[in-house]
Amino acid sequence: MLSAHGLACERGERLLFRNLDFELGTGEALLVRGGNGRGKTSLLRLLTGLAHPLAGEIRWRGVPIDSEREQFHREMAYLGHLNGIKDELTPVENLRMAAELARAPMSQASAERALTEIGLARCLDLPARVLSFGQRRRVALASLVNAGAKLWILDEPLTGLDIHGVALVEGLLRDHVAMGGLVVTTTHQALALDGVNIVPLQVGPELTLPEASPVP
After folding, report:
1. pLDDT of residue 102
2. Which of 195, 187, 197, 196 is nearest to 166 (CA)?
3. Which of its termini does the chain have fewer beta carbons within 10 Å around, N or C?
């Protein structure tokens, strides 16, 4: 479904990676690992079409994403470091606006139900600016779930979440993959994704700890 072929990426004048390849099928999750500054976020931007590779090609359903950009974006949802919600709007208004942009309008009742299911029942009518980062993250996750996209691309989705929020994200990922979806995600934290077919991808050299000096 999603594949990369000979990808190379640079930031400024620094080469982040090259000759990067992977294939991801229905019901699989690509787990992208690498140290800070190694190119994980840059890779996700390439996969979403927000940036272009220095070399190589990305394909969705066997077709280069540049040649079928509109179709690809209809089937892809992206959650980056920023939550992409408007401070002056309530969670309900934010969710309904995201649904309008995705050309899948939702009713007030449907928005309230989706936000309640994700743990925001007490925040439905509050402006987003007064919510905690974790609560704002949940609003963004509700938009992701309700976008109806087959491919989820997530950059550090656990950031700012407490233990209950982490468990919620893990459950969402497991459910999405179980229903035939695909996930690409970066994370510094371990994910409990039992039953999910994980495709690991290392970006940049793997970091190792120095050996301890022998005690004299």
Report:
1. 79
2. 187
3. C
